[in-house]
Design goal:
Helix content is about 70%, strand content about 0%. It has eight helices and two strands. The protein has a two-stranded antiparallel sheet with strand order 1-2.
Length: about 230
Amino acid sequence: MEGPATAPARQMSEAFRTVLFLSVSGGLQDAYTYLGRGGVFANAQTGNIVFMGQALFAADWARLLHYLAPVSAFAAGVAAAELIRVYGQRGRLHWRQRVLLAEIALLFAVGFLPGSCDLAANALVSFACAMQVQAFRKVHGYPFASTMCIGNLRSGIEALVTGARLRDGAVLRKAGHYFAVILLFALGAGLGACCTARLGLRAIWLSCAMLCVSLCLMFRREDAAA
């Protein structure tokens, strides 16, 4: 199980197989909220801020609130995950496992919310996404994001150019990890689009299933507390 230990070991939260399901889930969440919950991005808050700015200058206050809610919830989610990290170190569960449990519970609840509650649903998904972003920030020791791609793309291209220039296989493998995460996110988005079209608002439960797999994988071996 991932938890406090005296000997340092590679954290299962940084293992690629754990990150695999997190990234697919992140892509699915974005597709779900954009296609099924009124054109809001759960993860890409830059897009929401762009739409929010447009609504502000158009004096469209209802639309402004539509995008302000997920942005505010995202900020609150980061704060919540940080509080869990600081105060959730006791007990058998690692703090990252506590974050995943909270995220799964929130997303499961979202699946029950009707279309008339899109504002609340988008806020909850953004809150849950932010907790994941804050808790899972490395893959094999490399900084990454499981719910957005711009940073991964920049880091991947940088590693690719550096690895090719220096003929460094380790740096090229680093680039490969970033590109794999981007591909997984894209596959998750495609899966989210298909599932939202077929399953409707219950499609978010597939994201819960993937996060459950990541949670189970984190019990596979001990790691040092982060």
